[in-house]
Amino acid sequence: MTTPKDVQALVKRGQEIAKGQLQGMDFRGMDLSGAIFINTDLSGADLSDAQVNGSTFLDCRWSGAVLERAKADQCFFRGGDATGMQMRGATLEDSHFYDMLLSDACFDGVKTGVLGFSDCDLGAASFRAIESEMLVFYGGKLDRSDFSGSLLQRTTFFESDLRTAIFDRCRFDKTIFIESDLSGQSFRGQEFELCQFTDAQLRNCDFEGARLNQCNFKGAKFEGASLRRVIAPQCVFVAADMNGIACSGGDFAQSVWVDAQLRKADFSGANLEQCMFHRTQCAGAVFPDARLSHADFSYADLRDADLRTATLMRTKVHRTLLENTRFSDRGGLLQNDPALFAAEEFSARRPKHRGERGPQGRPA
User: Fold this and answer.
1) Cβ neighbours, 10 Å, residue 69
2) Distance separating alpha carbons of residues 280 and 360, to the nearest angstrom
3) How far apart are CA 275 and CA 265, in angstroms?
4) Are 205 and 182 contacting, i.e. CB atoms less than 8 angstroms apart?
5) How far apart are CA 275 and CA 83, in angstroms?
6) pLDDT band at 2, cuts 50/70/90?
7) Residue 58 to residues 79, 88, 139, 146, 194: CA-CA distances in angstroms?
8) I need a labelling partner for 310 at 20 to 30 A (CA). Which of 47, 204, 328, 351 fits?
């Protein structure tokens, strides 16, 4: 009958362990570094405080296994059922999980530098208070995954469905949500620093009172979302779909909104100083008491917009559509920008190349 000591001896000799029946075995505190397990059943095994650094696990069964406080740096886990695996407090420096069933797994308090999950089912997995330099989630399932209380630093979610993930009390630093779906999430009062939401789905998200310092929302979809009272200086909203959303009371100083869709958006009382709104669609948007000093609406559509009681000072409306736009006073508007006129004249004299666009964004 194979014993844990027998397994350790095989590992030390560099021998692969294939199709092993090791379920329920007690490996607590043992050194199994450099092991290669292939299609082995480790269900219910206890590896608490064990060392498995540099090990490879291919198509193994981990259901109910315990690896609490285990040293599992530079490990590679591919395939297999690890439902309910417990890795609380383990170290997982430069380790990777690929194509695994990890539902209900526990990674609470894990300490890691770089840790990756590719195409894994992480339904209801727990990552509470995880400490990492970089987490990467590529595809897979994250429904009801719990990140509560974690600092998600340099974490990447690529094409991830995060609609039911739990981010209570999280902080986000250089977190990336590329093409991920965060619809319906509430991030009220939470902090985002230098985060990327490129082409993300943010429908009905609640960011009220959040700090969004220098975040990038290029191409994001905001239908039904709230950005009330956010602190969001120097953000990028290029080509974002923000029709009808609430941005009242927000601080968006020096943000870029080029080509954004902002029809009927509410910017009441918002700080929009030095913002760039080139070619934005702002028809029907409202800006009462907004601060628009040095804002630039060149080539934008402001038809039927309400700018009454807005602060206007050197606010550019070069070739802006202003039909039925309401102002308390037009004194602070710059109707024509000589530098832009000169650029347009220069562009008009240049030979046009196929696909090149003119000043209004139309093909030349």
Assistant:
1) 19
2) 11
3) 16
4) yes
5) 49
6) confident
7) 6, 22, 20, 26, 37
8) 204
Q: Distance (Å, rounded) from C-alpha 145 to C-alpha 126?
A: 6
Averaged pLDDT for residues 94-101: 96
> What CA–CA distance (Å, rounded) separates 65 from 103?
13
Distance CA 171, CA 159 (A): 21
pLDDT tens column, 190-223: 999 999 999 999 999 999 999 999 999 999 999 9
The rounded distance, in Å, linking the Cα atoms of 35 and 166 is 35
Say if residue 66 is exposed, middle or buried (CB neighbours under 10 Å; 0-12, 13-18, 19+): buried
Residue 355 has pLDDT above 70, yes or no: no
Q: Could you tell me the sign of the dihedral formed by the alpha carbons of 317, 322, 328, 330, in that order?
A: positive
- Tokens for 212, please give them: 């969004």
pLDDT at 337 over 80: no
What tens digit of pLDDT does each residue of 100-154 get? 999 999 999 999 999 999 999 999 999 999 989 999 999 889 999 999 999 999 9
Residue with tokens 């009927």: 264
Token pair recorded at residue 55 = 């090990």
Average pLDDT, stretch 290-318?
96
Query: How far, in Å, are 108, 343, 351, 353, 360 from residue 348 at the CA level?
Result: 61, 9, 8, 12, 12
Q: Which two tokens stand for residue 256?
A: 């870029």
pLDDT tens-place string over residues 29-64: 999 999 999 999 999 999 999 999 999 999 999 999
